[in-house]
Specification:
Largest sheet of chain A: none
Distance between the termini of chain A: 66 Å
Number of strands of chain A: 0
Radius of gyration of chain A: 20 Å
Structural class of chain A: mainly alpha
Oligomer: homodimer
Low-confidence stretches of chain A: 195-200
CATH superfamily of the largest domain in chain A: Tetracycline Repressor, domain 2
Mean pLDDT of chain A: 89
Number of helices of chain A: 9
Helix content of chain A: over 70%
Chain lengths: 200, 200
């Protein structure tokens, strides 16, 4: 295969993902189907079915495409600052198009579809947890966090708290919430000081 | 008014809420509507509309009825044990009928209905957060937790982590998760020892 068809294939994939996201934003998840995406993109349904087994799989790929660049934590050597920055930077993505409403709709759909929930976790949430874990594990190796704590679950707590607030709370993911969350994390695992005036 | 009609009113309310929950369990949230509830209960639609403005409001009341008794934390004087017990006791309720599937469906529906999300938070999640806060605030007054920490947000973190695992993770709310969560909380706010071997 020469480079030409490969490039055309990549361009077509990118176009299909963009059309999917546009359509999802316009009509919502409930109104979305592969026929409508095919019609809008000017391709046959089978072109899509050859690549994606379901509407959900196609939509998750479309979300991934606009999202992945946002997932990497900075590493300035100050884990508290880097967590804060990342959480505050993620918050608008969750509440605004193109990601926010579509992602929320997929999460809703996943509540009655265990296979989609698994794919969603594998494709998105596990990635978010992993990148959080990677950042705090680096901080642990750098001596910013206590040496012998297992940080897998704390990474999930950090992500889970933000998702809870986004999906189920009426309060925003704002500076106050992010500061409180990072304070709690550092109080538990920071190698230095802790919250409050207890006899630590 | 004599006691007789008041008792009849309470019995009819209880019956309507039970019918609602039964029907929700059978047909799912998507298949549920006030006409179907009225038909099953043998009452007119207006009997229901007089009391509940929407299907969601009726269903939230039905969920509340089977649920409220489970929400109170024990107070044995050992906050770590009481949190563990409560979290492990809540987990099966979230995964099994009558509460689990119906509650999950309401949460899904709330993702595309901001008013329902607000009602859901006010009626359920705020209550869960509050009862968690009450228990840890008592522990703080008893000297089990550091004196000057604001425990509002930590109560949300405890609840949010469990909801995240229930709604978005593929892992169960098991002893390992609950222990890790309570360990993190106590490491941050316990008046005694902390996680790890840091220079605390």
């Amino acid at each position: 295969m020469t480079d030409q068809p490969r490039r055309r294939g990549a361009a077509r994939t990118a176009e299909l993902l963009q059309v999917t996201l546009d359509l999802a934003t316009e009509v919502g998840y409930a109104g979305l189907n592969i026929e409508a995406v095919a019609r809008r993109a000017g391709v046959g349904k089978h072109t899509i079915y050859r690549r994606w087994p379901s509407m959900a799989a196609l939509l998750l790929d479309a979300l991934s495409r606009v999202w992945t660049t946002d997932l990497d934590y900075h590493d300035t050597g100050d884990v508290r600052a880097d967590l804060r920055e990342q959480f505050l930077r993620s918050a608008p993505a969750l509440s605004q198009p193109p990601i926010g409403p579509v992602y929320r709709a997929v999460i809703a759909e996943a509540q009655s579809d265990a296979a989609l929930r698994e794919t969603l976790h594998e494709r998105f949430l596990a990635t978010v947890e992993q990148s959080t874990f990677d950042r705090i594990a680096r901080a642990q190796r750098a001596g910013e966090l206590v040496a012998d704590a297992d940080l897998r679950f704390p990474a999930e707590v950090l992500c889970g708290t933000l998702y809870y607030r986004w999906l189920l709370s009426t309060k925003p993911i704002d500076e106050e919430a992010v500061n409180s969350l990072v304070d709690m994390f550092m109080a538990a695992y920071g190698a230095g000081s802790r919250v409050g005036s207890g006899p630590a």
